[in-house]
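step=predict obj=BolA family transcriptional regulator n=94
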Amino acid sequence: MSEATRIERIRQALDAGLAPTVLELEDESHRHAGHAGARDGRGHFKVRVVSEAFAGKLPLARHRLVYAALGPMMQTDIHAMSIVAQTPGEAASA
């Protein structure tokens, strides 16, 4: 599977699950060459998601929402993910 396809699948899952107003996604797999997660074909990603779905939720609950939106890809495509999860109000004041 090409990385562009993987990135697009991640983007589609997050769009469908969280309806973000901002979604920034970066593949950082190249920085982890030789790491166990890289050897088994899963990638390392960095994501910034701005969504109303995070309103009133603590950071751990926000991360769980991201993981839930990604579903099985967390087991098959993603080894690690750095997450910034904000509400639109938080993003505007940052």
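step=describe
The CA atoms of residues 22 and 72 lie 23 Å apart.
step=end
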